[in-house]
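Support reply, case 0932

Customer input (verbatim):
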Amino acid sequence: MMDIPVLDWSRFAKEDRQGFVSDLAAACRGPGFFLLSGHGVPQTVIDSVFSQADRFFSQSEVQKRSLAIDHTNRGWAQLGSENLDDSQPGQRDHKEAFNIGLEMAADDPRVLANEPFRAPNRWPELPEFRHAMLTYFDACHRLGVALHQAFSADLGLDANHFAPHFTAPLATLRLLHYPPARGTEGEIGAGAHTDYGSVTLLMTDGEAGLQVQPRGGDWVDVPHVPGAFTVNIGDCLMRWTNDIYRSTPHRVLPPKRQRRSVAFFLDPNPEAPIEALPGTGPAKYPPTTGARYLRSRLDATYAGTT
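Our regenerated output:
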């Protein structure tokens, strides 16, 4: 069995910094997953995001299709458009999603220069939707960057070692809707995969389905703690740490009832160098950048779809 610990973020910010870092180190080197309570993101902000996500997904397919996902990784991904498990090329995930990236104006120099993944967000015509999403995005961005200070403490780095690489990140706020299971053979909510970026902050509605797979072990249900984030290490941070931290496969089973979740994927800046950190030994991976690595993973996810 895999032990997925519950860590209280207030320990790092207040009275037990070293104790928190020690527990964090065990989680990142072991399961690659932990639950994070005491994170400071107000419940009202969380509730607002779920409420607005419900409004978005309740729209007609015609309305949602007008905001179809594009090469900037923004917009609506329809049911069956993704395959997260590349070992099962014929399997399609039974979920829909809506992606929001870093907010940018159409005349931003990075947009005009066609920098990778730089574009304005694609907003539905729903009052309060944009405000709720950007408020949540900013809160998760701050928390994710702060978590990297704790990673730095564990890895013996300067507290702000990672900070310059997350000033304008390729972060994605992803709203997810899993319809109830149809009972068809081979059905999956989200296929087995590891996340692409540095760290993921996931909030769910409590409906079961998320599972993780220990190396060489069987699938284990992830427990739900109301108000706590499920946090997992992504592949970029695993590469950065030269496999000191673990990016663990996970999946979502088709739920008995509809399942809703909100994932914040904190990928680094496009130009961030993803290479083995000092003191981690001979590099196990060739160097890349945040943008190049994200593109390689997204191309695989959407292969074979139109």
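We compared this against your earlier run and they match. Two observations from our side: DSSP finds eight helices and 14 strands in the chain. The longest strand covers residues 259-266. Please reopen the case if you see a mismatch on your end.
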